[in-house]
Amino acid sequence: MNPEALSLLLTRDMPYGKYKGTKLADLPGNYLGWLAREGFPRGELGALLALMYELDHNNLRSLLDPLRHPAGARG
Description:
This is DUF3820 family protein. This protein has one domain. It is built from four helices and no strands.
């Protein structure tokens, strides 16, 4: 798994649709499931959405927590 891709999930916004402006890491599981059934878009966005779907589907969203709150960070 590419650590840079995990980081991108926290910084990239969904560029269109119902969840436009939502960070990819914050997209709801039902929407990710719908995208998986309908087909992910091509390119980097599709790859990131597929990765987020896998994390959600396998109950691994917590892998993003250390990136959200790096050790030693306050807030």
